[in-house]
Amino acid sequence: MIYISQKRLHGLLQSILLTTLTSMVWAASLPADSDDIEDDIPPPKTGLLHRLLHPHQYREEHKHQPPKTPRVPVTIDVNNSALQKLITDHLPLITQQLIEDLDDEQLGFLAEEAPQQTQTMLETEGYFNAKVNLEKQRDGYLIHIDPGSRTQIENVNISLSGNVTADDDLTNYYKNAVDNWVLPVGDPFTQSNWSASKSSVLSAIVRKKYPLATISASRATIDPQKNLADLSLTVDSKQPIYFGDIQVSGNERYPVSIVTGMAGFGPGSPYDLDKLLDYQQALEQDSHYGNAVVSADFDHMVNDHVPVLVKVSEMRRQKLTFGLRYDTKNGPGFRGGYDHYNVFHKGFVGSTLLDTDRYETTFGFGLSQPRNSRGHYWTSNLNYTYSTVQHLESRALSSGIWKVRDRNGIDSRIGIEYITESSKIEDGPELGHSYATMLTASWKRQNIQTQLRPANGYYLEGKIGTTLGKLLASASMQRVTASGGYYYTPENKKYGTWVLRSQIGYVHTGDAVNVPSILMFRAGGAGSVRGYELDSIGIKSSHNSVLPNRTLAVASVEYQIPVYKDFALALFHDAGSVSKNFSDMQWRHGSGLGVRWFSPVAPFAFDIAYGHHDKKWRWSISLGTKF
């Protein structure tokens, strides 16, 4: 029998996942406080921007060196490509020649050791009866390998000891340990999978409640005559550990309650690594902080309670942002905003926004509460919008308050909204005044790999709302909207990317005349049905105006073909309709082609589309991707 054993493992499994998302915006910070000095600005989360702006420097620094070949060639003779690669990649007789120039004496020494080293590497792959022979040739060495039969796993024994054996959740600990095992009965023995199995079983124990667990015994018993292996592993859980106090550092501008309020646990809760990771992610995503590190301080435990250390890097209290844009959908535009992150000295976020373009101007205020440990917070806004799209002139005031849950990539909210609007046809008749008070609920999920170059993933969004009869409303109504998109790129990216998107909406009412137009639907334009003017699909009315209707449906398919580096050619077909009911829809189709440039700032799109209904070609330019 051959015995393979490993030293007892000590220490703690602790892994912190750091995720960063870089967005680029023209921004200036306003020094509102005396402690907001220049060296107080948190470091950037990533070096992506520098690499994008200096690509030649980045490529120079990472230019590959030409491969080096051994001075004395070594040939591996084995009828197994995986074993041949293993020996070639790791045998010192080969690898040392790639690192340094060896003399004949050094090469001779390595050649003497080569058969035993080869035998050891073969054993790590389960070949314990291999025959290795090294032959000196005129210009090098030839290593003959007969690997023989491979050892299979005959029996696996996993046992737990320590306080976990009296835990009410013992069954789940055993289940997680077995589920994580990667070397089941019947599989060939490999040292890498044996090590991975031990680590994965230990991981299943230390993640929750027993972070001090260790491997107290492990043995692989090999029978080379039968080519069978028995594996045994014992994990000692040690004592259970509980969270202690949360100790925050780096917190100066904002109340410490913002940091502690996001923790999904409290003092006395059982240790849980996943909760630490969720906590750090929540802090990273909060607008008050640039970076955050969360860790358990096992060096200062008190009575089996481990303190939680949180180090944050705060953002400025105030921020001013502005930007210019242009596209054929809305013409030239300007967007400016001001944010204050410590309103009432309670960490509330207040914001002001001005967004204007050729057809629409919006001015608004917003106020949001800090998130709590479950991702919940209250938010509210007040907006004024003036619009003149398709000769429909409207002035609308909207406001609302919502309870939001933003966690794990899902934004869901429920609240109450109020909309009041006066509208008229330009140079035409007044359409009157309408208003609505609605209870609303919405849900949004985005799972896109990257926003700078969407390749795989999806987004979904839905919203429902209803008035309470005619209570504070000019008409009783119910409104439903939903939209979604899907990106698919094969593993071989040269085959391009498929993009599917859809949108649907419906307003149920017996008095459509008294429903605010901003709650109804129109279609057409770069983000809807290409080949038609913005919001030109609807009810044709006097003075060349287009009015909204109660029902909307839009669908699109696009195929992006890579042509050169960050450029792609796009072929697409869109279809959409706006009508009174789904049963009487008259579809408008648009087909065309375009160019996509995935710039360092945002995706740029240029499209030429043919509107099948009015038989006209129209072009459009847009910057960015709407999710």
TrEMBL record:
<protein>
    <submittedName>
        <fullName>Uncharacterized protein</fullName>
    </submittedName>
</protein>
<dbReference type="Pfam" id="PF07244">
    <property type="entry name" value="POTRA"/>
</dbReference>
<keyword id="KW-0812">Transmembrane</keyword>
<keyword id="KW-0732">Signal</keyword>
<feature type="signal peptide">
    <location>
        <begin position="1"/>
        <end position="27"/>
    </location>
</feature>
<dbReference type="InterPro" id="IPR010827">
    <property type="entry name" value="BamA/TamA_POTRA"/>
</dbReference>
<dbReference type="GO" id="GO:0019867">
    <property type="term" value="C:outer membrane"/>
</dbReference>
<dbReference type="InterPro" id="IPR000184">
    <property type="entry name" value="Bac_surfAg_D15"/>
</dbReference>
<keyword id="KW-0998">Cell outer membrane</keyword>
<dbReference type="InterPro" id="IPR039910">
    <property type="entry name" value="D15-like"/>
</dbReference>
<feature type="domain" description="Bacterial surface antigen (D15)">
    <location>
        <begin position="358"/>
        <end position="627"/>
    </location>
</feature>
<keyword id="KW-0472">Membrane</keyword>
<dbReference type="Pfam" id="PF01103">
    <property type="entry name" value="Omp85"/>
</dbReference>
<keyword id="KW-1134">Transmembrane beta strand</keyword>
<feature type="domain" description="POTRA">
    <location>
        <begin position="242"/>
        <end position="314"/>
    </location>
</feature>
